[in-house]
Specification:
The chain is of the alpha+beta class. It contains 7 helices and 7 strands. The longest helix has 50 residues.
Length: 251
Amino acid sequence: MDCKQARELLSAQLDAEIGVSESTTVETHLQSCLECQAEFAEQSTVRGRLKGQATYFSAPAHLQSRIKAALPRLIAPERASTRWTWNWLQLAPSLAGVLALAWGLNVTLNQPSKDDVVAQDVIASHVRSLISNRVTDVASSDQHAVKPWFSGKLDYAPAVRDLSAQDFPLIGGRLDYVGGRPVAALIYRHRQHLIAVYEWPAHEKQKIEPKALSRQGYHVVTWSDGAMARWAVSDLDPQELMALVEMLRAP
């Protein structure tokens, strides 16, 4: 820092109006520059005299009266503002409650439904089996071989049907984990398409008609006979998938 830069900052240095970095730089310069030291000392003296020896005058009585008379008009907007601020403060809890309710409704309305969550789960399970090439744990078209395989692995016995005559042959089954529990997955084929049918004991003991969903390029149908909940998932044409569902629902 040269003398010109330092002297431009002396007044601000006196009033502590510059940052720490600049203040340190000015002090370093003053330590090595006698001329700037003298300038700084002179400004400091003048500042001290003005502050300690300057004459102060009180306003005349008539001027004080005029100022006081004008004050109500000047502060009226401020009072109104203060009153409004107080009203807003009184309303703040109510507004906060309304906002909290609106946020809660938004979260609730935008939450996925239970069916959406399970649909995502069965699709993920089906895709994992295709990617890992673990489509079946027991590969057989014999329902009397597939059903006993689940014995001891589940706390229920899945309903296994072979629909080869209807062009939906059973090719096997596997144990999977869906909806927070182990479940049976029965695998059928239709032409080149694989269909996974998941089933587990129904939470609600009532019949539910088939409901179709589509997610991520896969088609899902869910239904319940009152005892078992079932989910069928495939990339098969939705109408053909529903045809399989109707076969599985038939007595």
